[in-house]
Amino acid sequence: MSRSLRVNGTDHEIHSDGETPLLWVLRDELGLKGSKFGCGIGQCGACTVHIDGRAMRSCITPVQEVSAPVTTIEGLATEAGLHPVQEAWIDHNVPQCGYCQSGQVMSAVALLEEEPNPDDERIRRFMSGNLCRCGTYPRIHAAIRAVADGGDA
Amino acid sequence: MNVSRRDLFRLGAAGSGALVLSMTLPGCASRQGREPSHEGGWAPNAWLELDPEGNVIFTLARVEMGQGTYTGITTLVAEELDIPPERIEVRFAPVGSDYTNPQYQLQVTGGSTSLRTSWQPIRAGAARVRHVLVKAAAAVWQVKSEQITTRDGAAHHPDGNQRLPYGDLVSLASRQSLPDEVELKHEDDFRYIGRHNRRLDARAKVTGEAVFGIDVEREGLVYAVVSRPPMQGAWFESVEDAEARKMPGVIDVFTIDRGVAVVAETYWQARKAQEKLDIRWDETDAVTKDHQAVFTQYRRAADDSSGDTERSEGDAMGRLEATDDRFEAEYEAPFLAHATMEPQNATAEVTDIGMQVWAPTQGPDMARIAAARVSRFSPDEITVHTTFLGGGFGRRLTQEYVEEVAAIADRVERPVKLIWSREEDIRHDMYRPAMLHRFRAALDGSRIQAWDHQITGPLIFDWFARNAAAAQYPWAPKFLYNTLASMGRMTEDTFLTPKDHSAIEGAVEYPYDVPDIMVRHTHADAGIPVSYWRSVGHSHNGFAVETFMDELAHQAGEDPVAFRLKHLADMPRHRRVLELAAEKADWSGPLPEGRARGVALHRSFGTYVAQVVEASIENQRIRVHRVVCATDCGQMVNPDVVRMQMEGGIIFGLTAALYGWIDWEDGRLQQSNFHDYTLMRQDETPEIDVILVDSDEGPQGVGEPGTPPAIPALGNALFALTGDRQRRTPFSAGTANA
């Protein structure tokens, strides 16, 4: 049995079993490798994507439960260029190993869409679902702060 | 500066667990002529390839795992070649003798050695290429080489108008011979070194385009998972796999040396089928020690054997026996997991000419041995491709995941990707060794008169030798691999195999001016696999030494900063960072109610780091508010990358100090994932101020030195806050911990 899934503006026929987590459908069936596997239990946020604009952990979301459009890190940039959050990440030299950063960026974009000018405490709390073993947290905070203060998210 | 390719290349610091400490610069790496990777290309040495279209391709021999080699070493090329770093295309090196790390005689990325071992040879390699490009331009223009300048990837005519891009000069330059001697740029002329601050890999890492090991794609790829023994030292006995074989997508189920493999069309199908396996393990010889039993073993060993003397000055033992005014303390550092964000994984494919392996590994030459060990192929039939690494921290110096995937691919004959779950990654790690530290010291007023430090625990090399020994002899037949490893272990600290410093580094270099010093190591191994973990021995020695220094300062009734300075009269670089950190942190200044400061100073991998941590305890939880970090790492190539490494190193250290804990019950590891192996999160992250000292000294390591002082600086702050001494990690927010 196949099902339909809209990802980054394109409709796909999905053949994976319905219980398969969205993450593995994105990575292995659709070839979108930007979303990462980190823990498989929704603890680290490396797999964060947007479902209907909200940040969700794709490693614990069965694909059969996804009916709204999905946006992944690959769908963030437009023809006009990178998303302002991605630009801020580059300007602040955020990534080290980079493995968690797709998830960090997707969480930050979701936060700023929900709340364009969050205070520091709100940034800290919202971003605490995304682990980074390299310790890029201070720069993640600074990059979000810069986008929020620039007001162009 | 003149560099000859025959020059001896020496390193300023002893390495961590170094296999070989110093040797000649690999001459063949700068030899003229190598097959270019594409038509019309010119590959003047093992690192560089230029073509008529103006492309400059740099082969990076040190893997990028977050520490910044991709940017840093490319910046060295850019400087001597006079081309913007952004214009250079970076490729990851295959296995090859030209790419060996001169500090280890292995193709290893680790020990915070990448930049300092590349500083001269990479610059010289690029400078030689620039030299012949200039000669080619001089021939075209019929002017003298000295009149030509280079910038932005082009030669510039003395008339100030004409320019020749390097691409136009490739054909002519490729017929010139490279000079033996070459002049490197004077630092006053640097355009990029010390100034270039944008990570070259940042864009790929914020768009999802960067390819990590787990992202490797092959036509017809299938997926494998492996069930491994639940206890260290347990063995496979039997498996009932009929149910698993019936699961959708399953291709095969079979045993390999390390466990039971399930291969399926997709990763998720392999996982679901794995749940249906019924495996019996033989636990007869399994290790059943928990943390407490390990430390009981260590204490017995420490009581029974005074250990090997690693440093002895004056008569510490005599003086300590003679005095009644002796101060003693004991410290514990637990086993720790690496927990790289990218779980261990690797991909392998058998072709008609051999095996290809893709792996996020810190040691591709050891990966090749690992693949050869378990497959029908010899090392020269195996190609290893490295990818971006989703964190390393030492975890990817050993090659278990490569051994597994090679054994599986050898059997299924389809390209196969093996992925470890997070639970498998935590439970089958090679851990930071647990270590016991015992100190005795004698004070005379506010001066330390005698210092005795006994370190008890395993040597990492005993575990590391498995594939490392054979990787140094890639022509050796496979039946000798284990013999080579045993020989490596037996000959440790002889002319054959250099000394393993992993247990004692950061303790033998005790910097304080004390008349009688004794540092000794008592060997004790609990049978639990151990490996290198960011900052290695410094991670526990830094904690123990700098906490005990704080205890002595308190005992002497002295300020912790003043007490350290008093014992550092002839150590200007130590003094400098300590004074800078104290000043910037307003060490003696007022603090908000309920907060305290602690300090620590530690040199590792050639770099001096002092940190002042400001902490409080709120609702029974330790809160770290601010860390001030002063760093002297010699000359810097990308100062902001140094800053990033200090920030990350501090958070890595604080994570160990607050949470790091691995323990067993009946031989079964209790931690499994991020809910019970906790890492610091965004809402706990302190404000971090990094001060970088300007220096003309040679560049030193930065990936690891930020970690060691963070642990004792926090513990010392908690002592200042509560009066309870933190003698083991993770620290306790309760009242009685001492």
UniProtKB/TrEMBL annotation, chain A:
GO MF, one example: oxidoreductase activity
Domain of life where this protein originates: Bacteria
Residue stretches making up the 2Fe-2S ferredoxin-type domain: 1-76
Pfam families: Fer2, Fer2_2
CDD domains, per the entry: fer2 (cd00207)
Keywords: 2Fe-2S, Iron, Iron-sulfur, Metal-binding, Oxidoreductase
PROSITE patterns linked: 2FE2S_FER_1, 2FE2S_FER_2
Residue ranges that the Swiss-Prot or TrEMBL entry lists as coiled coil: none
Keyword Repeat among record annotations: no
Record InterPro entries: 2Fe-2S-bd, 2Fe-2S-bd_dom_sf, 2Fe-2S_ferredoxin-like_sf, 2Fe-2S_ferredoxin-type, 2Fe2S_fd_BS, Beta-grasp_dom_sf, Diverse_Oxidoreductases
Name listed for the protein in its UniProt record: Isoquinoline 1-oxidoreductase alpha subunit
UniProtKB/TrEMBL annotation, chain B:
InterPro entries xref list: Ald_Oxase/Xan_DH_a/b, AldOxase/xan_DH_MoCoBD1, AldOxase/xan_DH_MoCoBD2, AldOxase/xan_DH_Mopterin-bd_sf, N-heterocyclic_Hydroxylase, OxRdtase_Mopterin-bd_su_IorB, TAT_signal
Domain Aldehyde oxidase/xanthine dehydrogenase a/b hammerhead: 207-285
One term of GO molecular function: oxidoreductase activity
Disordered: annotated span: 300-319
Pfam family, one: MoCoBD_1
Protein name: Isoquinoline 1-oxidoreductase/isoquinoline 1-oxidoreductase beta subunit
Source species of the chain: Halospina denitrificans
